[in-house]
Amino acid sequence: MKKVNTMLLAFLLLLAASFSVSASEENVSKLIVQGEGKVSAVPDMATVVLGVEARNASALVAAKENARLMNETISALLSSGIASADIQTSHFSLTSLPQEETKASGEMQKAPEFIATSQVTVRLNNTADVGRVLDAAAAAGSNSIKDLNFDIRNPQPEKDRALTLAIADARRKAEVAAEAAGVELGRVLEIAEGYGYVTPAAKSAIQFDVATPVQPGEMEVTASVTLTYEVS
Fold first, then answer.
1. Which among 48, 47, 45, 49 has a CA at the least distance from the CA of 219?
2. CA–CA distance from 165 to each of 34, 36, 37, 183, 224 (Å)?
3. Domain CATH code at residue 56
4. Quick one: 128 and 139 in the same domain?
5. Domain for residue 78, yes or no?
6. 129 and 49 in one domain?
């Protein structure tokens, strides 16, 4: 019985100590500040979605013409130095336009037209090649661009620099706030962070011509941080 009482007493003391620590943490005066950091970087890669479209009254002919155009487009991409691993089929469809009826008699006015479309997503590891590659694809039969995006292959160094700036910004704000409030900054109780990209403006349309000019511009890598300080 004495051993049981001793164990029970030890458990109660441990529970009391845990409650005391928890209560003291809740009663700590806190200062919460947010900081932001931004760094600029030149994109070093791009992805583009190229498409071809063929129309014909015969579904089979439309599909064959579409395949021919896409094969020629892919061949042009390979000849431009794009690796086959960087070319991926991302879409294919074969649809038909509805038959039109005359208002007077309701008779069929013309046969339906079949539309075959296909797209490939191409990764370019050198942004200087974008214009040249687009021209080659257009010359081979590609007649649409669905998307063109620039990116950074390894953004981690920029993320680290942006986070460093964000923490410095938060610390500066905390020091200003603490001085203005007449309190002393203590230890950092909590850090919460986040990242994001500010990308260049999207290209809504591109006109193909010899040496099509495509400017990748700059990207902003941003970081935000929330610091929670103990103050006294």
1. 45
2. 12, 7, 5, 24, 9
3. 3.30.70.2970
4. yes
5. yes
6. yes
pLDDT at 35: 96
Question: Could you tell me the CA-to-CA distances from 116 to 28, 68, 89, 177 in Å, in that order?
Answer: 67, 11, 14, 64
Beta-carbon count within 10 A of 120 CB: 21
How many CB atoms are located within 10 Å of the residue 165 CB?
18
Convert 31-54 to b/e letters by CB count within 10 Å (16 or more is b). Answer: bebebebbbebebbbbebbbbbbb
The number of domains in the chain is: 2
pLDDT tens for 128-153 read 888 888 889 988 888 888 888 888 98
Greater confidence, 199 or 21?
A: 199
CA distance 163 to 196: 11
pTM for the whole thing?
A: 0.67
Name the DSSP letter for residue 145. Answer: E
177 within domain boundaries: yes
Residue 117 to residue 56: CA distance in whole angstroms: 12
